[in-house]
Design goal:
Blueprint: E1 13-15, E2 36-40, E3 46-48, E4 51-53, E5 57-61, H1 68-83, E6 87-90, H2 96-106, E7 111-114, H3 128-136, E8 140-143, H4 153-166, E9 170-173, H5 181-191, E10 195-198, H6 209-216, E11 220-221, H7 225-232, H8 234-246, H9 252-262, H10 268-275, H11 279-291, E12 295-299, E13 302-305
Parallel strand pairs: 5-6, 5-9, 6-7, 7-8, 9-10, 10-11
Antiparallel strand pairs: 1-2, 2-8, 3-4, 12-13
Amino acid sequence: MSILFSHFFQKINNIPPLEHNFTEVLASIAVMPKTLYFYGKMPENMVKNGQKMRPKCVAIVGSRHNTKYGEEVAYKLGYELAKHGVIVISGLAFGIDSIGHRAAVDAGGRTIAVLGTPIDEIYPRCHRPLAEEIVRTGGAIISEYAPGEKVYPKTSFLERNRLISGLSDIVVVVEAAEQSGSLNTATHALEQGKEVFAVPGNITSPYSQGCNKLIRQGAFPYTEPDDILRELFPEEYSARKKRKKHLKGDTDVETLILAAIARGLRSGEEIMKETKLPPEVFNQNVTLLEIKGRVKALGANNWSLN
């Protein structure tokens, strides 16, 4: 066994995938591993509306030689997903993988790294501090390879990609060359019936050729975190969109008034003070909103949403 520098890596856990509610989804992938070895803690089901549900998971994968553009996109996505309670899954590799993990940790969320090496050989070595943070913040480092097991990197790193996609609900490819391991992950995701998103890129950049090709072949183009959150939480997103639409008026002034009332203001004087609208402008627009059925008069120049 390799000598590891941290107590976080002293205890190696192992479990058959079907014996944990988080990993049992791997039953549907090609060649399910008999045993998973891991540091840290496997995520448990969450209780929502009285029902136990597996936490939402998104894989963020991409080039080891990312551009600044790729870094910004991957970090923002990982950060926003983690803020919404989504578990970020990747492979701890250089480039986009590590950026996704880092963003989730920085956001105070959880992330899971799937190794292509034996569990006692965290690779690359320079990412051991990041691996430690992943475990310390409630995440896990996973491998299907036992301590000291002999592997062949040319195949083991490709084989682990089926686990990354298998544990995820959605795979997002941020940057990828035309011949990229990330495309292998996307292929596994499609075979497993998972949705694949790809970040559109500069058509002259070799690091975007793979993503642009995926989009031509039918992958969803990724443009903002809401693209993913909308797929993961359709009911919540729809409700949020309805609320937002309800607070949008036909003019900027109407929107100001609706937003102020939505924040709990009732008095016309308070609304005018906060919005800095002159009395004549407020009176004209609140009357129009009443006629349109958007607000309701409560008497004594007090208002509520209708």
